[in-house]
Amino acid sequence: MSLIVTGSIGIDTIETPQGKADDVVGGSSIYFAGAASFFTPVRLVGAVGEDFPAEMEAMFTSFKGEAVDTAGLERRTGSKTFRWHGKYHENMNIRDTLAVELNVLIEDLPPVPDHFKDSRYVFLACTAPSNQLQLLEQFPKRQLVVMDTIDLYIKQDAENLAKVIAAVDGVIVNDDEAKLITGEQNVVIAGQKIVAMGPLFAVIKKGEHGAIVFHRDGSIAALPAFPADKVIDPTGAGDSFAGGMMGYLASQNAKSFDIETLKKAAGYGTAVASHTIEDFSVGRLQQITRANLDTRLDQFANMVRIE
Amino acid sequence: MSLIVTGSIGIDTIETPQGKADDVVGGSSIYFAGAASFFTPVRLVGAVGEDFPAEMEAMFTSFKGEAVDTAGLERRTGSKTFRWHGKYHENMNIRDTLAVELNVLIEDLPPVPDHFKDSRYVFLACTAPSNQLQLLEQFPKRQLVVMDTIDLYIKQDAENLAKVIAAVDGVIVNDDEAKLITGEQNVVIAGQKIVAMGPLFAVIKKGEHGAIVFHRDGSIAALPAFPADKVIDPTGAGDSFAGGMMGYLASQNAKSFDIETLKKAAGYGTAVASHTIEDFSVGRLQQITRANLDTRLDQFANMVRIE
Prior knowledge:
The structure is a homodimer. Chain A starts with a strand and ends with a helix. In chain A, 35% of the residues lie in helices and 25% in strands. Chain A is globular and about 55 Å long. In chain A, helix 1 (28-36) packs parallel to helix 8 (237-252), helix 3 (129-136) runs parallel beside helix 5 (158-167) and helix 6 crosses helix 7 (187-196). A nine-stranded mixed beta sheet of chain A has the order 5-4-1-8-9-10-11-12-13, with helices on both faces. A four-stranded mixed beta sheet of chain A has the order 3-2-6-7. Chain A has ten helices and 13 strands. By secondary structure, chain A is an alpha/beta fold. Chain A has helices spanning 28-36, 54-59, 129-136, 151-156, 158-167, 175-182, 187-196, 237-252, 259-276, 290-304, and strands at 3-6, 10-16, 19-26, 42-49, 68-76, 82-88, 95-101, 121-124, 144-147, 170-174, 201-205, 211-215, 220-223. The A-B interface holds A 17, 90-92, 185-189, 192, 206, 209-210, 212, 220-229, 231, 260, 263-264, 267, 297, 300-301, 303-307 and B 17, 90-92, 185-189, 192, 206, 209-210, 212, 220-229, 231, 260, 263-264, 267, 297, 300-301, 303-307.
C-alpha cells in the first residue's frame, strides 16, 4: 500500500570527524522516502527552488526498492532550495548548525497531486501544526497517519499541535521533543502522556541510544540502537528510522497495529538507520536492498533476544 | 557458587527531584552485594570507620536472597567511614557531588578472611589498579574475575590498569570510562578494544540507555534500560547491574560463558537496577525477592524481543 510523505528537501553541507561532504542532497524527505521505499511504494510531496540540481532530483528514484513517485516534487521558479550546513563534534551525538537558509520551506506548501489524494498511509513530517492539519484533510481515505514535529512548533503553537496529535495515529519524536510536548522529564511518562493525547502509538527516538514505543493499550517496546562500529555521518538517521518503520507498517496494509508489529517495524527502522549512518547523505541507502535490511534485522533481533 | 566482592561502603546524603535522604547506607558494595545475593551467596570485604552505625551494618544481611557473609567487613578504630553527598538534576542522568570524604577508602585495604580465599567468583570493584592486582593474587582458585574502575585510575595508572584488564575475565565500565581507557569515541569500537586487551568479555554501561556486551568471539549483545516510569534515586543502579549480572553468572557455576548467557545475566542486572532506582538507597532492594526479578526479566525480554 503506497505511503505519502510530505517534508523538507534540501542541499546539505556536512562536516563530521570522518570527513566533509559539500552540497549533497538532504532534508527529511529524501531519507524518509529512501528508507520507506524498501518496503512499499512512496509518493513524495515537497518543494525545491530553481537552484535544485537535476541530479539531486534523480536521487529520489535511485533506491533499489519500490518506486518513489515524485509527481509531488514542485520546482518553484524564483525560489531557492532549503540549505543546511552542520558540523558534528567528536561525540557525534552533538552537532552545531553553522548555517541554515529556510528559503522555500517558509513559503506556501506545495500542492498535492490529485492522484495522490487516495493515499491511505500518510507521514506528516515537521511543518507548522496548522499546515499539518490542513494536509491531513487532503487524504480522506487515510488509514494510518504518523507525524513528526520539532521544538520550534511545540513552543510556537502548542494548541494546534495538540489537535494534530489527537488526529493522527502515531507520533514519532525525539526525547527532547517528547519532554517539551508533555513538560515531563521522564521519557516513559512523557511517552505515556503523548499516547493519552489521542494517538494509537508514540515512538520516542533517542538517537544512538535507540527508541521506545508506547501503545495505547499500555504495552511498551524498548529497542537499543544497532551497535554501529562505522559511523560516518549521522544525518538522516532519525528520518530513516521513521521511514523504515512506516514503510514496513504500510506494507502490512492494516488499519491498526499491535505492539509486536510496531516493535518489528521499529526494528526495520533501526536496520535502515544503521545503514544510513555508514556514509554521507544517502550514499549508503542507494547501495542496499531489502535483503540487507532483512539480514540486519535478524542480527539485531539476535543481539537483543533474551532466552 | 559464592561470589566475593571488594568495594566501597559509605554513608550517603542524596538529593533528587523526588526528595532527599540523609545519612543512608551507600557505596558500591552494598548495592552489588544486595543485587548479587538474589542469585548466589555473597562474601564481602570492605572497611568502615568507627562511626559506621550498627543498623547500617545490619543492612548487608537484610536482603531476601542468599546469605551475605560480612566476615570481611572491618570496622577500623580511629578511622572514619567514606561519605558522599550528591544532588541529581531535573534530568537525573546528571548529578553534582556536593561533598565527598574518602576517609577509610584511602587507607590500607582490609584483610581478606582466610575462609574467603577459596572464592571462585571475584568482583574487583574500583580501587587503585595496583590494589586490584594484589587482591587478585589472594584468590588462587578463581574461575571468573570481573572488574570495575573509574576515570581517576584510568588517568593515574594506565599501565597497571592494562595489567588488571589482561588478568581478569570481564570488565564492566560505563561509556565514558570505556572511551577513556581506549581513546576511542565510538563505544562499539571501544568495547572491542577492551576485549582485545585480554578479557573474555566487556560490558559498557550507558546509564538510563542500557548496556552493550562484547564477547571475545566477536559477538555483541545490546540491551536498552528497563523503561522506568518511577525513578526516585538513580544511585547504585550501575553497581546493582554489575551485582545482578555477576550474581547470575556465579549461580551458573561455569568457567566460561557464551554471549547468550552473558546477555541473560545482563538482563538480570537490568532487572535489579530497575528496582534499585525505585527508592532511595537500598530501600527497594530490601523489599524484593528473586521472584520479582524473574517477573521483571520476563517483562523486559518481551519488550525487546522482535519476532
